[in-house]
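ok, trying the design again with the full structure, not the truncated one.
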């Protein structure tokens, strides 16, 4: 991902972003920081970039021409989201960071003095963002704050796949307290449960501490969390049919756009997937107006909604699927042992055998979400976790089938999910009898009815 920063102080930005995790990510070329000096683009022979505001008033204003030309030089005719850092913008938050992290490149425009001529802002800015209700001397620090928050969501920037998922704000809950060595310090002991080795008990303890902390420190977030919990509880009456909705909420990915009785509309802005379940067509139709424009996939639980969605919103049917979920108390046996996390050198192998784009597969390898089965050190199949949280990607080479490798790969994925406290689930295409049989044999429950995946035309 490429970050262009238009600024009068490129050194400040480069220095701030050249150390620690973000610096290493740039070295590894996972991100690129391109700091551009706006002054290099002024046509004024004295290098001037500012002037007095018409109508009078305090201070100087950055002029339109150098900003416009610097922006033009950087974007070269491409449409790039351009963020203007200003206290008048929308307040930055984690979901915004997730949204920006989807882009291939971003431009940050840093103002100085009393601001920038309005006319150039109208022409180049797509998003105005503030980092809080206070006024700084320039947009450089806010740009650095935003770049840090966005870059760490880029797959591979953080070394582990878990931390970006579990920390503060990802589930409308603040993070639980953490402890490191020594076991006792200033007479204070580390809570015993954390030394127990019991993963379930630790997960439960952490969730409870997160709840307490959020209720006390951020009652606003806590209200949102409670609404989510109530929706999950209602959906759980038909868990097998609603597991995708429930897991999207409980993993902190989905936002509730509507929730009343059996009518629920959820948007996963990270994956641009909208999920809808409705009691009847009339109610479902009313909810269609709330589906975000950027939605790329719709997951619909009622067949009667499918034609109207396709017609009104311009979607096409991709698949009719059953949901399969694993609710067992025990981890599943993984009989085939040589399963490893895939590295980037397996990218072309996965691309050859799986119908997804290079970018999609690359992202999942970087996120350590794909696992390969090896025979004599040779990759013969894989499975993994999709961005929306469902397990899938299952493939085993023809001559290695019927040896339990596929089952082991799926069990491996399921166990990893369980360890994180999630309910593992996946989608099985309705006509794929072999896969349906496999799910049943492994002890997964299938939904009573099918659901429809629709994609934007
Ligand atoms: N520029 C000056 N103050 C700012 C703030 N709070 N957020 C974003 N940009 C700014």
């Amino acid at each position: 991902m490429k970050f262009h920063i238009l600024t009068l102080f490129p050194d400040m930005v480069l220095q701030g972003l050249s150390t620690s995790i973000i610096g290493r990510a740039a070295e590894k070329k996972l991100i690129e920081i391109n700091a551009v000096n706006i002054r290099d683009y002024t046509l004024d022979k004295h290098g001037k970039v500012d002037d007095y505001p018409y109508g009078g008033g305090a201070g100087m204003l950055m002029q339109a021409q150098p900003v416009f030309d610097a922006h033009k030089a950087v974007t070269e005719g491409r449409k790039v989201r351009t963020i203007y850092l200003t206290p008048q913008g929308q307040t930055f938050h984690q979901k915004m960071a997730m949204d920006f992290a989807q882009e291939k490149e971003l431009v940050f425009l840093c103002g100085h003095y009393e601001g920038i001529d309005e006319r150039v802002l109208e022409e180049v800015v797509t998003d105005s963002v503030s980092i809080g209700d206070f006024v700084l001397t320039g947009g450089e620090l806010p740009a650095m704050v935003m770049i840090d928050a966005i870059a760490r969501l880029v797959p591979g920037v953080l070394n582990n796949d878990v931390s970006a998922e579990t920390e503060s704000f990802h589930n409308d809950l603040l993070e639980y307290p953490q402890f490191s060595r020594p076991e006792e310090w200033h007479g204070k002991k580390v809570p015993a449960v954390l030394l127990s080795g019991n993963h379930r008990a630790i997960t439960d303890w952490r969730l409870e501490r997160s709840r307490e902390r959020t209720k006390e420190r951020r009652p606003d977030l806590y209200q949102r969390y409670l609404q989510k919990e109530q929706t999950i509880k209602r959906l759980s009456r038909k868990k097998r049919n609603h597991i995708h909705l429930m897991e999207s909420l409980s993993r902190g990915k989905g936002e509730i756009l509507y929730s009343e009785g059996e009518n629920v509309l959820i948007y996963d802005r990270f994956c641009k997937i909208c999920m809808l379940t409705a009691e009847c067509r009339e109610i479902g139709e009313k909810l269609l107006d709330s589906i975000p424009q950027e939605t790329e996939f719709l997951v619909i639980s009622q067949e009667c909604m499918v034609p109207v969605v396709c017609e009104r919103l311009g979607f096409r049917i991709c698949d009719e699927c059953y949901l399969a979920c694993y609710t067992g108390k025990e981890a599943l046996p993984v009989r085939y042992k040589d399963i490893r996390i895939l590295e980037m050198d397996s990218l072309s192998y996965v691309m050859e055998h799986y119908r997804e784009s290079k970018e999609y597969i690359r992202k999942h390898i970087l996120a350590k979400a794909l696992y390969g089965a090896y025979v004599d050190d040779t990759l013969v199949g894989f499975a993994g976790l999709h961005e929306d949280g469902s397990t899938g990607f299952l493939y085993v080479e023809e001559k290695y089938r019927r040896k339990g490798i596929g089952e082991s790969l799926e069990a491996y994925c399921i166990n990893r999910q369980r360890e994180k406290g999630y309910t593992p689930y996946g989608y099985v295409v309705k006509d794929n009898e072999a896969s349906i049989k496999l799910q049943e044999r492994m002890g997964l429950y299938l939904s009573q009815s099918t659901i429809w995946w629709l994609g934007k035309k």
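Keeping the full-length input from now on. Residues 339-422 form a domain with the Aminopeptidase fold (CATH 3.40.630.30).
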